[in-house]
Amino acid sequence: MADMNDVLSLTGDLARRRCMELLRDGGYGRVAVTERALPVIVPVNYCLTASDEVVIGAGSRAGLTQTAGDTVVCFEAGGQDTTAGHAWSVTVTGYARPLTDGQRLRVVSARWLPQPDEPLLRLATTEVTGRVFPLLDRSADGQADPLPWPGGAPAPPSLPAAPI
User: Fold this and answer.
1) Which of 36, 25, 23, 40 is nearest to 123 (CA)?
2) Global model pTM greater than 0.85
3) Phi, psi (5° rounding) for residue 22?
């Protein structure tokens, strides 16, 4: 597998091919849907099919297929490579459609086995974007320093321990 540094551009953007490689193992992610005109983020299991569709299952959250079925959703998964000091995030936007019983038989993942009655959605990978970003700031001497507080301001002081 390629080192993250090999695919890291100056902006941290990942090519589509690398995004799909990162999603290939499946695992856990999040899907953004709209319920009653409000945005909702739902944790999901996922796997990638041989035809590069994302299959999403939300376990007991059966309403996900009614909410997200035949509509555009946004799916995100991420991970980290602590050895290389990078984290990654891949976002897939596309139409989510319920999986038919015949399609269920082709869902194979080493990390997730859908329950027989678990509602599943398949998400076409219409738009795929990804980024990597450092977990640690490498200073000139090669030492790993914590990243600065957002906005470049110094990190806030540590809070004192709460009394018991």
Assistant:
1) 23
2) no
3) -65, -35
